[in-house]
Each structure stands twice: as C-alpha cells, then as structure tokens.
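User: Please fill in residues for this 150-position structure.
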C-alpha cells in the first residue's frame, strides 16, 4: 500500500517542501524506499529542509529507518575527498592485509599507507585503483584464476 499522509493537506506526490514535519515523519515511519529517496534528495539539496529533517528524525519511531536515512544522507553529502578516503579504507579492509603488507604490495612505506588511511595525505587515483584491485584479487581469487585460465 502506498504511503498516505494523515491530517495534512500535502500528499507524498507533492514536493518535500510541502510535507512539513508531519509528512516527513510519516515518510520515515511508514514510507518506502521511493519516499525515503525523495526525502533524502530534498534534504541534501536544501539546508532548510535538512534542518526540518534533523528535527523530525529526533521524534521518529523507527530508529532503524532513521539510521538508514542518516547514512544515505551522509553518503549523498560527502565530498569527493571523503568518498575517496572511504573507498580506500573499505578496499584496505577487504584486502585482509596489514598496513605493512599492503605497503609492500604498493612499493611504498607503512607510514605512507597510514597517512592515506587517516586522511592526512590524499593518495593519487592510481593508489586507490591499485588497492581496490588488490582487494578484488584477494576476495575472489578463484574467479580471477579461472578467468586467467580461460
């Protein structure tokens, strides 16, 4: 059943600007992915709506949905540097290597890898691509070996 608002004149088809706190609250607690996407896109693009969302999330019943929406909003509003750093950290975790082992694979030093992961130094795109490649290689070795044999 599609989301319906109660006690307000707006509908879920209206722009989020027309929803107000009650509409946002209904979307958070009783909405679906399409409603949440619409809410997040609007809140990310409009600081005034972001403020209303921030107030509304505090009284929402669904803590799980609030956590999901907060994560989606954070991802949508991340800078390119933050996005690259998070991708690098995720790829590093996926390698299941120590920083020293990864440094050896990248032909660099462990302190340099530490500075990349902490965000103190922004690595080149080549480093990000290399770490993601190592992660893929280490998480799907049988597939990689199979493709090389074909």
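Assistant: Residues filled in for all 150 positions:
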């Amino acid at each position: 059943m599609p989301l319906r608002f109660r006690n307000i004149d707006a509908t879920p088809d209206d722009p989020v600007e027309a929803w107000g706190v009650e509409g946002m609250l209904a979307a958070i607690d009783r909405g679906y992915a399409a409603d949440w996407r619409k809410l997040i896109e609007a809140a990310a693009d409009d600081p005034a709506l972001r403020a209303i969302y921030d107030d509304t999330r505090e009284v929402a019943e669904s803590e799980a949905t609030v956590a999901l929406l907060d994560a989606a909003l954070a991802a949508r509003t991340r800078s390119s540097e933050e996005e690259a750093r998070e991708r690098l950290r995720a790829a590093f975790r996926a390698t299941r290597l120590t920083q020293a082992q990864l440094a050896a694979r990248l032909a660099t030093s462990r302190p340099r890898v530490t500075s990349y992961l902490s965000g103190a130094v922004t690595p080149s795109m080549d480093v990000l691509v290399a770490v993601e490649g190592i992660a893929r290689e280490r998480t799907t070795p049988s597939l990689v070996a199979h493709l090389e044999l074909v």
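For context: Residues 44 and 76 are 7 Å apart (CA to CA).
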